[in-house]
Amino acid sequence: MSNEIREESKQISFYEGEFLVKTLESEEELRQAYHLRHRVFAESLKWVPKVDDREEMDMYDLWGKTVGLIRDDGAVVGIARLLPSSGQFMLENEFGALLPDGYQIRKTSDTAEITRLAVDPEIQDRGLSSKMMLALLKGIYQWAVENDIRYYYLEVEHRFFRTLRALGFPCEMIGEPVILPPAGACSVAALYDMVRFDEENAIKKPRLLNWISSIETLQGEIISGRTSTYSNCERMGLVSAAV
User: Fold this and answer.
1) 130-134: long-range contacts (C-beta < 8 A, 24 or more apart)?
2) 127 is in which domain, residue-wise?
3) Does residue 28 surpass a pLDDT of 70?
4) Is 216 within a domain?
5) 83-102 tens-digit pLDDT
6) Which pLDDT score is estimated for 236?
7) 6-18: b (≥16 Cβ within 10 Å) or e
8) pLDDT, tens digit, 9 for 90 and up, residues 190-224
9) How many domains does the structure of the chain reveal?
10) CA 152 to CA 243: how far, in whole Å?
11) CB count, 10 Å around CB of 123?
12) Sheet harboring 172-180: ordered strands across?
């Protein structure tokens, strides 16, 4: 099953400022991603137990794809693992407590789940850290465009959920915030609709929409208008047409 899922997933790669945003493929890139996950989710947040090799891995890596933020020295400094609906979501298992009774999880081909979203905790410059998180969110957006995804599930701390909404990502909370063990983090499950993002920001934050829908290829070409395949922004003239 996992091989089939991996073959169907389309990859992304583009420059965002001094960073390369891409689907991680090589053994070294993935090793760095697992190490970064351990530093964030085991050592810092304490969401998962520490392991001797300091590489945080689980069964979802069999079918998940990781979008990474790579510095010019080759270091992976940001990650987001994306789970297609053809495999299980963490929301079906570890984070099921965040769902209200009777909630039916979407498991259609236009839906994926954002997991293990993080930037390097050693970066102390808050401005740079925020810039890196935005670059990762752009990678998540562009992966959805490339793979015909409209909906993303995500499970985050409540304070980060509020930050996402303030930035212009109109995520809708599913259920109420829950204190999750073992870290005791106040967490929420949410659904992120790409169409709503496109159409709301075309009016409210057009600069954000134009930025997130434009990429610089590895050959230096600027491609604009890469909005969700499900939205009508290009047809309505709300963003520049793809070139």
Assistant:
1) 131/17, 132/19, 132/69, 132/77, 132/78, 133/78, 134/167
2) 13-208
3) yes
4) no
5) 999 999 999 999 999 999 99
6) 54
7) eeebeebbbbbee
8) 999 999 999 999 999 999 999 999 999 999 999 99
9) 1
10) 27
11) 14
12) 172-180, 185-193, 151-157, 111-119, 76-84, 65-70, 19-23, 13-16, 215-216, 222-223
pLDDT of residue 229: 85
The C-alpha atoms of residue 87 and residue 64 are separated, in whole angstroms, by: 8
Q: Which residues fall within 8 angstroms of residue 88, CB to CB, at 6 or more apart?
A: 60
Q: Give the C-alpha distances (Å, rounded to integers) separating 3 from 7, 62, 81, 143.
A: 6, 8, 17, 19
Report which residue type is found at 15: Y
CA–CA separation, 216 and 147 (whole Å): 18
Question: pLDDT tier at 9 (50, 70, 90 boundaries)?
Answer: confident
Which residue type is seen at 212?
Answer: I
Residue 223 lies in a domain: no
Taken in order 125, 65, 32, 24, the sign of the CA dihedral is: negative
Among all chains, which residue has been given the structure tokens 């930025």? 211
The answer to whether residue 237 sits within a structural domain is no
Asked if residue 234 belongs to a domain, the reply is no
Look at the chain and count its residues: 243
21 φψ region: left (φ > 0), alpha (ψ -120 to 50), beta (else)? beta
Tell me which amino acid residue 86 is: S
Q: Where are the alpha helices (DSSP H) in 147-233?
A: 158-167, 194-204, 206-212
The CATH number given to whatever domain includes residue 23 is 3.40.630.30
Half-sphere exposure of 116 (CA within 13 A, CB side): 30
